Amino acid sequence: MNLKDAVASLQQSHPEDSLIPLYTVWGEEIKRSDREDVWQEYPRPQLQRDNYRMLNGRWQYAFTSAAQAESTSQILPGTPIPAQGTILVPFSPESLLSGVKRQLQPEEFLWYEKSISFSSGELARKARGQRCILHFDAADQQAAVYADGRLLASHTGGYLPFTADLTDLVSHKPLLLQVQIRDHSDTSYHARGKQTLNRGGMFYTAQSGIWQSVWYEWVPDNYVKTLKITPDMDKGIVMLELKSDKAFSHVSCIMFEPVCREEAFPKGSSPKIPLEGISIEALPGRPGAFIVALPGESLRLWTPEEPYLYPFALTADEDTIQSYFALRSFTVEPDEKGIPRFCLNHRPYFLHGLLDQGYWPDGLMTAPCDEAFVWDIRLAKEMGFNMLRKHIKLEPLRWYYHCDRLGMIVWQDMVSGGSTYHMPLVCYLPTLFPHITAHTKDHHYRLFSRADQEGRRSWEQECLDTVEHLYNVPCLAAWVPFNEGWGQFDAARIADLVKEKDPTRPVDHASGWFDQKGGDFRSIHNYFRPLKVKPDGKRAFVISEYGGFACHIPGHSSVERIFGYRKYDTPEEMTEAFQTLIHKQLFPLKAAGLSGAVYTQLSDVEEEVNGLTTYDRRVIKVTLRSQAPGGHREKGS
């Protein structure tokens, strides 16, 4: 074991550090042009309608003390807030792109305010009986939404969407929309991922408030509230399950010829060629459930090499939506030698993965634009990776859409929570004595920062809500409930719960250590020892984190401190070490039963300079075939 590097990587907080302002090329463009038309793309590609309006852009904001809620000087919903400036939604106030650059503290409220005027066409929609549904794709952490002083919705949980019905308040008068936010961050048990008020090491700047799109759309009085898509490639069918307030009298579906690496429904153009010979039948005893049978001669399976998507248009009475699906299967099956392997479409498929934190120097958890998502995914593919492990964070649905159409398998972590982590137990001890963790049971709730029963119950519900939220995503291949014991509890039971909710995907129940013998993978982290395979004969074996090679590039980091698991002075040195690790240590382990591995990581994040690209995405540290070491790769190149 490399004890020197292990000791050097001990977690430390550095709240005294001031982050150096650092912009991506996309964020720099937003700042330079003072743009307000950010994130205007339709946010929900698999349940898409035409009649919508994005509310991203400039809002008024104000910070107030939470103690004011008990005083006569509090902000009263329905009356204008004492604005302290404008904030660019959907960027959190802690981010550079928000224009605020102030951290919301647990003892504070953050207020947003925007006046909305409705067009004559929208008033006519209301007169015809249509409804106006307001969407918040994510607001961290507790949100209360008011319209003209009326409480429309309240929501707890910083990573999942929620809605409110605006219909009754739509009129010829402007509507005052206000949102109150409170964020306890890592001072409570709520799911928070890597956010911390005392940033440093492997934990990052806490962000708060609205950090994904705000928008509304017009729908019929009875509309498709949710659409569940379950493809079955073996049978050549797809099951569609529609949820609505009332049963639909007529449902029809048009399937289109599958597309590969293209937009499923490009804006401003007509859909693709309709598929001939499909049939749609209602399932007896399953209201709202339909089976669509596909013609066998046209079947195209989804793989990272050929990511075929099937666009379709669904009409349910007066509601019409556009969507897509893919034919593929993700399983764990024995190979010809009886070794359990991860399988894509029933064939062993080696997962060459990257850890993806989803952080940006100018937007924190919010990417500067849709194009930035595409850049990250394409970079990973160009470097030979076929999987991204989205690390204890959920992304906007457009990120998953681009993985779907570009061909990138996704392993999805649940967002970790719990009280303050006992790092000697969940990090240092497993690093030094990994065999001990195999005998540690995770029902000792206090040891795993899960003593609060309400916290466990809350996380469990968010876990199931996450499965439901992302169920339709074709590229999503596995669920990862827990990482390195951070807030872990009852992992084997949770794995069964997730499998019951979604039987179509395998589960990595405890990534790193504290294996409870559940799920479909034996999943270890290895940063300081030679890479090895230790299969148990029942589950596929994966090295779900390794590498972490660090190389600091001056002028491209938000802090001067360096955190990583092995440090190199130049991109050339890091490239040589990276190639040696991959080709001489990792790939030879496939024959011994290795099903996949996740290199840490795609990009630098604050002190962590162990990315293959810098935090601002301007310098790639590891050589590509057509590129010199440390070469610049600007937006669009």
Describe this structure in words.
The chain is an alpha+beta fold and 637 residues long. The longest helix has 18 residues, at 453-470. The model is unreliable at 625-637 (pLDDT under 50).
Biggest sheet layout: 7 strands, parallel
Strand content: 25-35%
Spatial order of strands in the largest sheet: 29-28-27-26-34-31-30
Q: What overall form do the CA principal axes indicate? A: globular
Q: Give the terminus-to-terminus CA distance.
A: 40 Å
SS-derived structural category: alpha+beta
| Total number of helices | 10
CA-atom Rg in angstroms: 24 Å
Work out the number of β strands: 34
Helix content: 10-25%
Draw up the topology in text.
Elements lengths: L2 H6 L16 H9 L18 E3 L2 E9 L19 E5 L18 E9 L3 H8 L3 E6 L2 E2 L1 E6 L2 E7 L5 E4 L9 E8 L12 E2 L7 E2 L3 E2 L3 E6 L6 E7 L4 E7 L7 E5 L3 E2 L18 E4 L6 E5 L14 E9 L2 E7 L4 E5 L5 E5 L2 E2 L2 E6 L13 H13 L4 E4 L6 H10 L2 E5 L9 H10 L1 H4 L15 H18 L5 E5 L10 H11 L19 E6 L13 E8 L1 E2 L15 E2 L3 H16 L7 E7 L37
Parallel strand pairs: 11-12, 26-27, 26-34, 27-28, 28-29, 30-31, 31-34, 32-33
Antiparallel strand pairs: 1-14, 2-3, 2-4, 4-10, 5-9, 5-14, 6-13, 7-8, 7-10, 15-16, 16-20, 17-21, 18-21, 19-20, 21-22, 23-24, 24-25
Helix pairs in contact: 4-5, 8-9
